Amino acid sequence: MKELDRLAPPGTPERATLDGLDLTRLPRHVAIIMDGNGRWARQRGLPRVEGHRAGIRAVREAAETAARLELEVLTLYAFSTENWKRPGWEVRTLMGLLREYLQRELDVLVSNGICLRPIGRLEALEPDIQQGLAKAVEATHKGTGLTLQIALNYSGRTELMDAFRSAARQAAGGELVADQIDEDWISGQLATAGVPDPDLLIRTSGELRISNFLLWQIAYTELHFTPVLWPDFRASDLIRAVADYAHRERRFGGVLSGGHGPDVGED
Ligand code: IPE
Ligand code: IPE
Ligand code: MG
Questions:
Q1: pLDDT for res 261
Q2: How many domains does the chain have?
Q3: CATH code of 138's domain
Q4: Is residue 262 predicted with pLDDT exceeding 70?
Q5: Which ligand is nearest to the CA of 98?
Q6: Is 83 an annotated catalytic residue?
Q7: What sign has the CA pseudo-torsion 191, 195, 196, 199?
Q8: Range of the domain at 203
Q9: How far apart (Å, rounded) are the C-alpha atoms in residues 78 and 63?
Q10: How far apart are the C-alpha atoms of 194 and 129, rounded to whole Å?
Q11: How would DSSP label each residue in 130-188?
Q12: Annotated active-site residue in 5, 19, 37, 83
């Protein structure tokens, strides 16, 4: 059971946002497209690198807040398969920041009970980054709180493509017959296997698109777009987004829950 005093102690700024809310309606899984680092830097006359650096602080704050809110999963889109198109220096900067993050934040992750789970085609990352990720996964695997999925060299289409290829191989080997393929089977082939689909997807920076993120998993996810640029995204922004989500009525193609009974003349 979630308790308000634990999630948002009295006197904290987030208390007012969460007060009176049915805490059982908070999302289990929040996914975030962290966008706007470059524009944040440009607005300040700084190089893009500084925007990415400032974005790391927002990552730390989002992870800590999600852990405090006792969410089950937070998925952060950190580097897409399309981001390799960026200039070499920018890709190197992003990878350098990832290296730093893995070294510096490990203690914070462990002390918050966070379990790290990188998703994406990790084999294409530099060997030392793969090692850093493996070390962080090992160090955090006993975390019983939040699962922090970090999407690296990830895209929804490559994830699906990999699943189709694996299905074709299994079928050719006689281990899979067509009728075994249902929604659960497909979900189980993806990088996110075993975690519930996102309840809420947040995109910062005012862009209104999905940019190849979690295409299969977001079929019925609630969407939240905010103009806030990622480096400015604070705990209070995340808390407002989850509080807004708690008021939404999800239907999954059905009728309003707790709504009116059948119309007269229908059964
Ligand atoms: C998000 O910020 C970070 C990554 C995609 C890695 P951007 O770098 O996309 O920032 P904008 O969109 O150019 O402002
Ligand atoms: C989406 O942001 C990818 C990540 C946040 C990692 P982009 O900035 O790459 O997306 P587009 O190019 O604006 O769609
Ligand atoms: Mg962008």
A1: 61
A2: 1
A3: 3.40.1180.10
A4: no
A5: 1
A6: yes
A7: negative
A8: 27-157+197-246
A9: 13
A10: 25
A11: HHHHHHHHHHHTT--S-EEEEEEEE-HHHHHHHHHHHHHHHHHTTS--GGG--HHHHHH
A12: 83
**Assigned domain for 187 exists:** no
**pLDDT surpassing 90 at residue 256:** no
DSSP summary character for residue 12: S
CB contact burial 149-175 (16+ within 10 A = b; e otherwise): bbbbbbbbebbeeebeeebeeeeeeee
Mean of pLDDT over the chain: 95
- Cβ(77) – ligand 2 distance below 6 Å: yes
Is residue 11 situated within a structural domain? no
260 pLDDT tier (thresholds 50, 70, 90): low
Looking at the domain assignment, is residue 172 inside a domain? no
Q: Which of 83, 86, 215 to mutate to test the pocket of ligand 2 (most atoms within 8 A of CB)?
A: 83
Q: What is the pLDDT of residues 197-237, one digit of tens each?
A: 999 999 999 999 999 999 999 999 999 999 999 999 999 99
